[in-house]
Amino acid sequence: xxxxxxxxxxxxxxxxxxxxxxxxxxxxxxxxxxxxxxxxxxxxxxxxxxxxxxxxxxxxxxxxxxxxxxxxxxxxxxxxxxxxxxxxxxxxxxxxxxxxxxxxxxxxxxxxxxxxxxxxxxxxxxxxxxxxxxxxxxxxxxxxxxxxxxx
Length: 151
Description:
Helix content is 7%, strand content 40%. It is mainly β. The strands form four sheets. It has a six-stranded antiparallel β-sheet, with no helix packed on it. Strand 8 (70-74) and strand 9 (80-82) form a beta hairpin.
């Protein structure tokens, strides 16, 4: 890895692979792994109703919501609403999906790492409309200690 600025115009936006997503999803590569780093970062924009298939990550994944309204579900848990500024921490090998809300775009920064043996994402079956359209849990609104202490 060497120091440099990678200009936005040098990396075109790509439509995500239809075999791993439902609906129209756009991807902007931020960083692809370069030794010794194994980190990958991608800005992903989901159109309303678009979502990933169920999938897992060898070393886990971090999602940081940049804009819009999204949804996330880890298998066996309730569907959650995602809002700008939310961070989702997904453990290694956790089966999950994420995407836009039925009536909103959602853009997030997806950060993951390739495992020592080169393994990354394992793509599974599509999320059914029944699972996707389940009523999400109400998001808990909490304030950080720094904000609440000054109030």
